[in-house]
């Protein structure tokens, strides 16, 4: 009987020892902060410069123009394998008088489909950017998933001077493209889109008259028919210069015929011009503005 009691005590002691050993191995550490990856990075495909993009254009003139396309291209890298969302973080601007205005339409953003692939943003310069000194673009490296999800922001104040390290474009100012049209109207006709007011710059029948006031209007001629149709947007050029052109042989009378070639009219740099009497003309001809043609140079 005593042996049996001793055996039970031994079994109980071994059991307690086993429980103590098991509880030690079941313990765990504290919890770490969340796992993070690496930030996404954009680079310029032409030279592999990091935090940089390439800029190219199809422009053929001396400067960028309305209707020209500017293409931003980047190579997307993310060491964690997160997908590209940088294409949704591109903003284009046009710059006038030192002020940046966001461009809200006329672009196509395409992200990279693979890590290590390229993404693009293609902007077609809108009519409202006419006369702007530059086109600006801001893009931020961004991934679809991951932490951190956002990389470096790349700001290029002028696409001509790509300070990020990639290629650049032609300079501004943005010149009128093929779709930008200007016309000369009599102020009293109250010209507007679809009004049908006579455009004196496109008529050989009507003539501007001394003492009358004329206005210059520019618009985005969407259908390229040379007429300010209903729905076509009026534009405000940065610079306007009224000019006299041609010979005054129909008005010279007994005075010497004068010939002018797009001669700027002194002080006529707004959208309004009142044809002066002879003494107030800057033509230098005795009959003043009479006999010459009017035109407007604008940008």
Automatic annotation (TrEMBL):
Signal peptide positions (record): 1-26
Q: Which UniProt keywords apply?
A: Signal, Transferase
The domain of life is Bacteria
This entry's Gene Ontology molecular function terms read:
transferase activity
UniProt xrefs under NCBIfam families: partner_SinI (NF040711)
Name of the protein this chain belongs to: Intimin-like protein SinH
This protein's species is Budvicia aquatica
Q: What is the lineage of its organism?
A: Bacteria, Pseudomonadati, Pseudomonadota, Gammaproteobacteria, Enterobacterales
